[in-house]
Amino acid sequence: MAVKGTFKDISFTEFLQLMQLSRKTGRMEVTFDNKWAMVIFNEGVVWHVEPRGFGGAPPEEILLTLINTPSGNFTYQRVQVLPTLERSVNVSMETLILEGAKRLDDEAAASQEMAAVGSGQPNQMTQALKFKPGAEAKVRYVPQNVKRILQLIDGQRPVGEIIKQCQLEPAQAAQIIKELLAQDVVEMVDPGQIPEQAPAPSTAPA
Fold first, then answer.
1. 90-106, pLDDT tens digit by residue?
2. What pTM does this model have?
């Protein structure tokens, strides 16, 4: 019989720990934010991930996303014998849980950093960034870490996604965004507020 629930009832991390302790074999289907993933367990070990809507992310990254997802619906079905299936997840449960906890801490630090931008605004992590007139002259010579942020600004991508995708420490990325806002290089807008963002200003080596 299938078991259904939400991550508000039991977090994905708690579910992983439960599966590890019980050493069960089965499949878990998760849906959230227009994304879907099937996680296959083999005797309590995460064995394989079938994703949809994750943009080609590797299995370990998808599992970390699930660990950091506060809401979502899931259905778990126990199976007696796992079909012949090549293993695609090669990290331990402990490693996944520890890395997931670290990312949660990093995201909390980034959110706290962004919260200092200004009170009374919507959640800054869900706002997008748009280049302001004259931005090119202000960012012609910038360090590589600032370029990583600039290249992701398109008027549509939320601040939270920019911080995740820029390959910088979240608190560092949040600090750079704060400085770009303070220098009037960018401004916050609702995602989708503008139909098309101008290309990122060209930059020269710092």
1. 888 888 888 888 877 77
2. 0.58
